[in-house]
Amino acid sequence: MKDYTSTPPVAADAVKASPDAPATATQPPREAAARPLPEDAMIILPVRNLVLFPGVVLPITVGRPRSRAAAQEAVRAQRPLGVLLQSKTDVGEPGPDDLHWVGTSASVLRYVTAPDGTHHLICQGEQRFRVLQFVEGYPFQVARVQVIEESDAPDADIEARAHNLMERATEILQLLPQVPEEMVAALRGVKSPARLADFIAGFVELSAEEKQRLLEMFDLKARLDRLLEVLSHRVEVLRLSREINERTKETIDEQGRRHLLREQMRTIQKELGEEDGSAAELAELDKAITAAKMPEEIEKQARKELKRLERMPEAAAEYSMVRTYLDWLIELPWTVAGEAVIDIAEARRILDEDHYGLEKVKKRILEYLAVRKLNPSGKSPILCFVGPPGVGKTSLGQSIARATGRKFARVSLGGVHDEAEIRGHRRTYIGALPGNVIQSIRKVGACNGVMMLDEVDKLGMGGFHGDPASALLEVLDPEQNATFRDNYLGVPFDLSRMMFICTANVLDTIPGPLRDRMEVIHLPGYTEQEKLQIARRYLVGRQLAATGLSAAQLEIDDEALGAIIRDYTREAGVRNLEREIGAIGRNVAVRIAEGKAQRVTVGADDLAAILGPSRFEAEVAMRTGVPGVATGLAWTPVGGDILFVEATRMPGSGKLILTGQLGEVMKESAQAALSLLKARAQGLGVKEDLLEKSDIHVHVPAGATPKDGPSAGVAMFVALSSLLTARAVRSEVAMTGEISLRGLVLPIGGVKEKVLAALRAGITTVMLPARNRKELEEIPQEAREKLKLVWIESVDDALATALSDVPAAAVPA
Ligand SMILES: Nc1ncnc2c1ncn2[C@@H]1O[C@H](COP(=O)(O)OP(=O)(O)OP(=O)(O)O)[C@@H](O)[C@H]1O
Ligand SMILES: [Mg+2]
Predict the structure, then answer these.
(1) For the chain, percent of residues with pLDDT exceeding 90
(2) 575 lines ligand 1 (CB under 6 A)
């Protein structure tokens, strides 16, 4: 049977907790008659595990008959109860030796008999007392006691401590969870330091024994000190535990928040009918990774990224980055989807079908394809088509792709300055993407296609953003490109199955290491005859199709085509030719659409009406014909061209004026020409003092175009000689060659292009350095037939051919 229970101060509620219990009475039943108590004696109530302090209200349960008798007598006689803590808890009926001899007198506020038969007292602590002597002969314990008076004299020491204690206690109350407001108010209401100490001692969490020790501390200062110590410790403990609490709560909060958000997202998706979209998406990605048949290492990487994606909220900025990256990995063609066997005969047929002429080029291409067919894993060279615009470099590449049944990809390198354009940006950059090599591979969806790298000669030089040429080298070099590493992908991609073809207008601006790895194929440009064939067989048909006309509706006769080639275009390729044919097609289309005509045949005479006046008519004849003008031949990236060297003389002091945007080398060759002329003045019949009294001005028109190179040397010399001998240069003669001061003509480059340019310009005689004679073979047959080629050894040979016999006017005096 449980007799006395210690209850915390707030447990007063426990009594109220059964309000419907018919609380019997404040007047307890009378159980025993008692003899009167002496004046200085007090009825003793022994309690276990509970210390009552003065000023504190506590519920006390009484169970033992002797205790019940004591309580009833106290109520009946309206006497205080002396509450004493048992020093030995396991004793049923404690004697004087089993009790502490210091306690608190209490007035019984209520005596409650609960419906279950238990008896409860609500006691109010009044004063400390000390037992002097136990008195025998009562049905309960009685003792004679000495009440301990508390001094209330003001004392600064005590007040300071009390103040401190109040602060500490308030702090504790605030740290404790669920402390009622009233508690704080009650504490604040306690005015005397002694009362405060007891009040706090009543509710502070201490063992009964420790509380007893506080009760027995009659010295208030010592008691306050001890309480301060206890409270300080409590505050620390409470603070710490609260901190720990908060920290764990925080982590739980964050996790809970995320969980909640995810739940909400799912609900929203469900509402929208997109049930668990992300899960479906991830599953799809997983499938796609498997289907992409990546190499093992890359698949591992992809799955790693997928795992990251799974753990990421969809709204995170990184989510879309990882997603895009995965898309790249998935969509790149990692494996060959079955290589078409190259059929050489078929390839030849297709090349012929698409392109007229270019026999040498086609032959080389077929050789290349044959080697690839016989030794597919061998490291094939990189073809590089070099030639002026519009000669069919790009379209040859497309043709090769068609001939080999492969996809065609084109990467333009013109103006690429940043290595990252080729090799991509690292994924850490915002908006990073792979370089254009990988991009175009994804676009065509094949890792064994034909990739044309257009305009390698216009590749930017290495600089601040890395060297694009060295990045390109990694793409092209068969030694390296099996494990090409794009910065964005971060994993190797095998480029070795790709067929690379480069194109360029000029060779010398291609970085050396790159050029070394290329097999250069020159496409010098077409002769008039070739152009005519190309126009007839390809261009007219193509333009008809583009304008929606049928061959029956429009015919352009050969004469007209020839006139377009001669008078309306001056180019190495056929791009402008195709454009002019297109213009004719559109003009005729309008006429037919308007119903003005059914069928149109365009002849040479109709051209002026359709295309306007001819552009290049008889330019040479117009310009030359006066002394001092010679027709030179220049090599330019857009094919060869003719150029005029004009010289004039004015009174002066033998100065040489050069204009026309001439480069250093060209200026020097002008100087050399003049020196050479001076040295030979006598032999040429030039008066010596004529040169001394004149300033010579040499101009090379198309003054806005920079020109350079030594190959205009002969033309300069001829122009000067013509000027000073007053013999005009034959208008049908064009020339090229470098000169030495001894009058030798030195070899030059670009013979083919220059010869073709001369032919285009209507020249009939071309003077070439004799030392270039070995290149005769390379000059197109048609040019050789139509042109008179004169091989010159020295400037004297040049004058002999170029100058007309009859002086145009009298030689100036
Ligand atoms: N031999 C040829 N036979 C038929 N068509 C040709 C031939 N040469 C060029 N063409 C046509 O001329 C046009 C221009 O050719 P393409 O675009 O290949 O020139 P390109 O050499 O790549 O010039 P660029 O250096 O300016 O890029 C194309 O329509 C092409 O088909
Ligand atoms: Mg091109």
Answers:
(1) 29
(2) yes
